[in-house]
């Protein structure tokens, strides 16, 4: 990760951590960098979520891009995966999404996407950061080399058409709930499900710039759970702020998270001969119960570091077709190069309709293990993680759990925290083992006492 850009873009509080000057400089660099070796104009596509600050950052990026000679195509409020789709299918040099995903409204972010619809490579991002830090100078475009903007709502509409084309059956007679998190999916998701014939029930689709993710969407799934039960719906889908995540709610009101979606879709793909390499890609945070269920049906799995970026890299390297995170980032590599919440909902609907089973039954073979995750604020993450006594405590827990659970101790990527997670057959076991490791971290003097 760089100085400004993490695994999911440049993110922080608007005009505090991430400022309009940053956005302008990102635009200035990208417009020059992707246009410097071309005879024709550089073309960049931009989307944004519903945060009030997204307009501010959009105009700043546009000013920088056009000042460097790029033509900028504006999708307006749309999803991150739609920017990825348009960038890869319509010959753009790069794409930019303005969003802080599931963060509160006062945060925002800039996600950079390459011409293949993938997250921008690290080398280019480091060059962007060098320009932000004043380590190089670039020229302004002049005369007819100055760029312009194009209203490109048509690109968003083509993406909607693409999603609709992926459905294998009509959704007629299906009662579907959609929680749009007052974010990017607020118009697109309903348009797709209505077009496919569902009886669509929508909540949290009234964005005002300040309510994105507020008691809504995939990070507040309890809202959709209540809604599904109250309205006797067949299924519900909750998205996050930029709609690259999806968490489902089944017909009983139970949560179907990313792990369960991987199981439901992965086993279906295996039955249909579509699960390349007989493998599903997960992260180290996937539940132990998922792995036990996959082993029971003879499906192999890979584990990556936390982050859909690492899931995607593994899928590309090995030719796998499905992967994702517990948080609802699911990637279907045949159809997209990034997590796509609405696409994920469509693929779950395909399994429900093709197998003629409710989602509750499809997910029932997975017995989710109780999990306890506690964060410990430390003086030095590497020192705490590598302490011999801490490692011995972790090994002791692993041996006690055997094949009935697991322990994971990892450093936070963004905060001075060590995360200690245990999955076991009972919540009491989880608590006991987590606390035993934290006690050693504290005894060895690594904690920052608050």
UniProtKB/TrEMBL annotation:
It holds the Pfam family PGM_PMM_IV. Keywords: Isomerase, Magnesium, Metal-binding, Phosphoprotein. GO terms for cellular component: cytosol. Activated by phosphorylation. Catalyzes the conversion of glucosamine-6-phosphate to glucosamine-1-phosphate. Mg(2+) binds at residues 101, 240, 242, 244. The gene is glmM. Binds 1 Mg(2+) ion per subunit. The modification Phosphoserine is found at residue 101. It comes from Candidatus Anaerobutyricum stercoris. It is an enzyme of class 5 (isomerase). GO terms for biological process: carbohydrate metabolic process; peptidoglycan biosynthetic process; UDP-N-acetylglucosamine biosynthetic process. Its EC number is 5.4.2.10. It catalyses: alpha-D-glucosamine 1-phosphate = D-glucosamine 6-phosphate. InterPro entries: A-D-PHexomutase_a/b/a-I (IPR005844), A-D-PHexomutase_a/b/a-I/II/III (IPR016055), A-D-PHexomutase_a/b/a-II (IPR005845), A-D-PHexomutase_a/b/a-III (IPR005846), A-D-PHexomutase_C (IPR005843), A-D-PHexomutase_C_sf (IPR036900), A-D-PHexomutase_CS (IPR016066), Alpha-D-phosphohexomutase_SF (IPR005841). Residues 373-437 form the Alpha-D-phosphohexomutase C-terminal domain. Residues 3-133, 169-253, 257-364 form the Alpha-D-phosphohexomutase alpha/beta/alpha domain. One of its GO terms (molecular function) is phosphomannomutase activity. The active site is at 101 (phosphoserine intermediate). This is Phosphoglucosamine mutase. Its cofactor is Mg(2+). Belongs to the phosphohexose mutase family.
């Amino acid at each position: 990760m760089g100085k400004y850009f993490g695994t999911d873009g440049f993110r922080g509080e608007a005009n505090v951590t991430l400022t309009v000057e940053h956005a302008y400089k990102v635009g200035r660099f990208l417009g020059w960098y992707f246009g410097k070796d071309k005879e024709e104009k550089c073309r960049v596509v931009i989307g944004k979520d519903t945060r009030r600050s997204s307009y501010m950052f959009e105009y700043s990026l546009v000013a920088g891009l056009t000042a460097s000679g790029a033509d900028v195509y504006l999708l307006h409020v749309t999803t991150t995966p739609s920017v990825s789709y348009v960038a890869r299918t319509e010959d753009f040099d790069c794409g930019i999404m303005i969003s802080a995903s599931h963060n509160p409204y006062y945060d925002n972010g800039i996600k950079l996407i390459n011409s293949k619809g993938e997250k921008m490579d690290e080398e280019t991002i480091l060059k962007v950061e060098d320009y932000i830090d004043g380590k190089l100078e670039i020229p302004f475009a002049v005369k007819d080399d100055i760029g312009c903007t194009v209203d490109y709502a048509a690109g968003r509409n083509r993406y909607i058409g693409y999603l609709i084309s992926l459905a294998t059956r009509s959704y007629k007679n299906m009662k579907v709930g959609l929680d749009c998190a007052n974010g990017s999916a607020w118009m697109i998701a309903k348009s797709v499900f209505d077009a496919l014939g569902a009886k669509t029930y929508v909540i949290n689709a009234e964005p005002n710039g300040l309510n994105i993710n507020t008691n809504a969407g995939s990070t507040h799934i309890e809202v959709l759970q209540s809604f599904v039960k109250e309205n006797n719906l067949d299924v519900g889908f909750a998205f996050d702020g930029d709609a690259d995540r999806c968490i489902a709610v089944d017909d009983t009101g139970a949560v179907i998270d990313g792990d369960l979606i991987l199981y439901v879709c992965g086993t279906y793909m295996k039955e249909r001969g579509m699960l390349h390499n007989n493998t599903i890609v997960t992260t180290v945070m996937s539940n132990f119960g998922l792995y036990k269920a996959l082993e029971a049906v003879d499906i192999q799995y890979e584990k990556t570091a936390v982050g859909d970026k690492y899931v995607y890299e593994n899928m590309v390297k090995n030719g796998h077709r499905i992967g994702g995170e517990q948080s609802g980032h699911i990637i279907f590599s045949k159809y997209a190069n990034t997590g796509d919440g609405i696409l994920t909902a469509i693929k779950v609907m395909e399994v429900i309709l093709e197998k003629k089973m409710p989602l509750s039954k499809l997910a029932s073979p997975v017995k989710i293990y109780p999990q306890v995750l506690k964060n410990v604020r430390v003086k030095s993450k590497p020192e705490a993680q590598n302490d011999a006594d801490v490692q011995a405590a972790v090994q002791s827990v692993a041996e006690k759990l055997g094949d009935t659970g697991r322990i994971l101790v990892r450093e936070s990527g963004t905060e001075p925290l060590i995360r200690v997670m245990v999955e076991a057959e009972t919540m009491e076991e989880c608590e006991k083992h987590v606390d035993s490791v934290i006690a050693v971290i504290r005894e060895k003097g690594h904690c920052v006492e608050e």
